[in-house]
């Protein structure tokens, strides 16, 4: 094929085939060409031009006029190439996220049946974070409604994007956390407020399998101890308890 220059090679790096790049370059040089003229100029067959046109039109690089003979013109690269690069970047970014989630599921084994002691608030976060990355159905949270680490928030955001339901029962809803709860709700959480908070623990249930209970220490929040129980039967009972509270709670 003729007219394979440095610019054509650069077009290949942003997603064009070599033949598509050659056709686009020819149209930019000549402004408007018939299909057979493109084929003659590049030294390729007319059917090959038609096949490449499918990709060039999908990428938003050319437009066609008439039917017989079919004429082609290139769209201004200042408009077309920026959109092409951005669309490709967004597509690759989505694929990257899918690959990361798939690999996380493979490398984060399901915990064994049993109990784990969590000696601090940070230990609780460290335990639940890999489980959040592998959530498939739901996460139920009963808490005072206080800030969480950014990595936990982002992991939950990705979980919601893949269809996981996140329900939050907050014992507090006032000027101290109203903006926080509203932001969670905007990001896909289902949030309700318990009108009469009386609990001295927080509760988290992950996919109906793992239950994390943490004792409340208002003066030493970072030293809150807890336990994680991997037992689907126990989690099912706690889920019923959560559901009963959820029915009594108020929408925010």
TrEMBL record:
Pfam families (UniProt xref): TrmB
Lineage: Bacteria, Candidatus Gottesmaniibacteriota
InterPro entries noted in UniProt: TrmB-like, Tscrpt_reg_TrmB_N, WH-like_DNA-bd_sf, WH_DNA-bd_sf
Domain (Transcription regulator TrmB N-terminal): residue spans on this chain: 14-78
Protein name as annotated: Transcription regulator TrmB N-terminal domain-containing protein
Domain of life: Bacteria
Origin species: Candidatus Gottesmanbacteria bacterium RIFOXYB1_FULL_47_11
């Amino acid at each position: 094929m003729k007219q394979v220059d440095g610019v054509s090679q650069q077009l290949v790096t942003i997603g064009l085939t070599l033949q598509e790049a050659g056709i686009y370059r020819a149209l930019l040089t000549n402004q408007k060409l018939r299909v057979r003229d493109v084929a003659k100029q590049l030294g390729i067959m007319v059917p090959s031009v038609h096949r490449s046109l499918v990709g060039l039109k999908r990428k938003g690089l050319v437009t066609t006029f008439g039917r017989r003979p079919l004429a082609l013109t290139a769209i201004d690269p200042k408009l077309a190439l920026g959109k092409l690069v951005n669309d490709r970047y967004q597509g690759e970014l989505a694929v990257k996220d899918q690959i990361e989630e798939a690999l996380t599921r493979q490398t984060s084994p399901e915990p064994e049946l049993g109990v784990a002691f969590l000696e601090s608030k940070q230990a609780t976060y460290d335990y639940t974070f890999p489980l959040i990355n592998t959530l498939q159905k739901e996460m139920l949270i009963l808490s005072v409604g206080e800030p969480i680490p950014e990595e936990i928030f982002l992991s939950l955001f990705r979980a919601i994007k893949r269809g996981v339901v996140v329900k939050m029962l907050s014992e507090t809803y006032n000027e101290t956390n109203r903006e926080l709860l509203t932001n969670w709700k905007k990001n896909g959480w289902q949030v309700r407020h318990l009108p009469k908070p009386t609990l001295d623990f927080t509760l988290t249930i992950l996919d109906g399998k793992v239950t994390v209970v943490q004792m409340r220490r208002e003066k030493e929040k970072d030293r809150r101890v807890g336990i994680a129980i991997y037992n689907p039967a126990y989690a099912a009972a706690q889920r019923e308890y959560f559901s009963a509270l959820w029915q009594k709670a108020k929408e925010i």
